Amino acid sequence: MKKNLTLSAAALAAVIALAGCATDSTTTAGNPSTGSGSSMDHGAMGSSSAPADSAAAMGHNAADTMFAQSMIPHHAQAVEMSELMLKKQGADPDVTELATRIKAAQAPEIEQMTGWLNGWNESTQVADGHSMSGMMGADDLQALGAAQGKEADKLFLTQMIAHHKGAVDMAKAEIADGGNSDAIKLSEKIIAAQEAEIKEMENLLAAAQ
Fold it and tell me: In the chain, count of helices (H) and strands (E)?
């Protein structure tokens, strides 16, 4: 199920736009400096303040840049997958609640990391040919979009488990090689919360069989 693909520019642009809208309603979700919120569920930052984030004012290295550039489209796809799940009729309420949490959490983090890259004078686009672990392919997203009911629950959980594992791998690489303390803190939170969500999704998937 894992794919190493980049997200389309149109989809990424749509999610970055969503991030700007989402921050007003999620400003208490917690960010790397507050220590509140869950994995992907870290704090919203208003669009006007994102470039002024402390991480943007601090030094960074190539690993920090790659982490942010890669995690932005990775998060964007998680939001896209969650939106597909939230359109389903007859889905398990626990699954839709999880999808709601993921969508609400990851859009603000997209904006946060975009602010870092802007502050570092780095491109917000991932380098051509760079692969991202856990990304779904177009066929996977099409299958999720078409599935309904219990089948949709199982497919979403299976795909998101793989997607989360990819994010954890990327965050571990940032901790090992990154130099920006705020980016490392975000990586640590991603690992802690997404590993917990992987266990939650595995339990939900087992119950759905």
Answer: 7, 0
Give me the residues paired with residue 135 across strands.
3
pTM: 0.74
Whether residue 63 is contained in a domain is answered as: yes
Predicted confidence at residue 175, as pLDDT, reads 98
Residue linked to tokens 């995690």: 71
What b/e sequence results for 97-130 when a residue is b if at least 16 CB atoms lie within 10 Å of its CB, and e otherwise?
Answer: ebbebbbbbbbbbbbbbbbbbbbbebebebeeee
CATH at residue 62: 1.20.1260.10
Are 111 and 19 in contact, with CB atoms under 8 Å apart? Answer: yes
- Contact indicator for 83, 143 with CB cutoff of 8 Å: no
CB distance 34 to 43 below 8 Å: yes
How many domains does the chain fold into?
1
